[in-house]
Amino acid sequence: MQFDVTPNPQPVDETRLREILADPGFGSHFTDHIAAVDWSWDEDGGRWHSARVEAYGPISLDPAASVLHYAQEVFEGMKAYRHSDGGIYTFRPTANAARLRRSARRMALPELDDATFLASLEQLLAADHRWVPDGDGEALYLRPFMYASEAFLGVRAAHEVSYRVIASPAGNYFGGELRPVRIWVSRDYTRAAPGGTGSAKTGGNYAGSLVAQQQAADNGCAQVLFLDPLQDNAVEELGGMNVFLVTSDGRLITPELTGTILEGITRDSVIRLGRDRGMPVEERRVTLDEWARGVEDGTITEAFACGTAAVITPIGELVDGDAVIASPGTGEVTSAIREELLGIQTGAVEDRHGWLHRLV
């Protein structure tokens, strides 16, 4: 699909851009352009059209737009890195494209093909390549998203849909140097239910997690851990990250995908890198009691969370009401896998799996 490009007539000037890139934070600043493609229903089932790159700015929505009333929306998250060869690369974008299609299918939205997905990233980066930071571990965060734009209050799948990509320079997700984080165990709320939308990357899942995240913050914690109370308090995931445990005999354990857990691309990458190291990987049910016993008797030696934004972050403590499960902190396996994964993404380590895709 051919993208029409209309340059932003008022891009951010170089002085202001240097100020932003000196301390990008996360999700606070946005590039000069946005990539967009629209979809309309027709007698053949619908078609994508009007691919374009244009100035970043507010989106005009009718007050009756379906997304505002029925939350028919999905999104993705990924990063673009500046490499030493001068190119800008992203990590496993076809996996993001495939997950966007799975999410869209679950939310009754049209599916976007790989070629158009990749072209939207490439065209946006061609326009906004100067926004990619080059600090250690820094990146340009990419946010593709799709929403129901049709003005219609009937409860059915929308006949008009918009796909967009925005970008934001990103530093360390949790701020400062890598350190173990404190996690709040939610006993009042669950993230998803069997047959629900837990495996889709859709905004409603995150909206439902925010009250638990507020509880976490009120108790001095950086994130919240959700459990499945119907499965002996099986560990599900954090508000936006998957969970891994490392055992004293060299195993890597992560909760199995049951339809209530998001199939993380970083999660899958960690599993592959663990197996590359000869580590047996177990995808199975893990209860909070097993985690607590393992920490107490020494069979669980490390715990970490992973996701696109934070990459890999060690878990220091689990706060369960008045009880605290003190995980060992940043361990050798956590550090090694994180270093290798970041090295692949930034071009410092050989990409044995062909995960990198050059955008510009």
Structural class by sheet pairing and helices? alpha+beta
What distance lies between the first and last C-alpha atoms, to the nearest angstrom?
Answer: 18 Å
Helix % is 25-40%
Radius of gyration: 21 Å
* Basic shape: globular
How many helical stretches?
Answer: 8
SSE order, as H and E?
Answer: EHEEHEEEHHEEEHEEEEHEHEEEHE
Write down how many β-strands occur, each being a DSSP E stretch of 2 or more residues. 18
Structural summary, described in words:
- The chain is of the alpha+beta class and 360 residues long.
- It is 27% helix and 30% strand.
- The protein contains 8 helices and 18 strands.
- It has helices at residues 14-22, 66-70, 93-106, 114-128, 203-218, 265-276, 288-297, 332-346, and strands at residues 4-5, 33-40, 47-55, 73-75, 78-82, 88-91, 139-148, 160-170, 181-185, 223-228, 234-238, 242-247, 252-255, 281-284, 300-307, 311-320, 323-326, 356-358.
- The strands form 2 sheets. Strands 1, 2, 3, 4, 5, 6, 7, 8 and 18 form a 9-stranded mixed sheet that branches. Strands 9, 10, 11, 12, 13, 14, 15, 16 and 17 form a 9-stranded mixed sheet that branches.
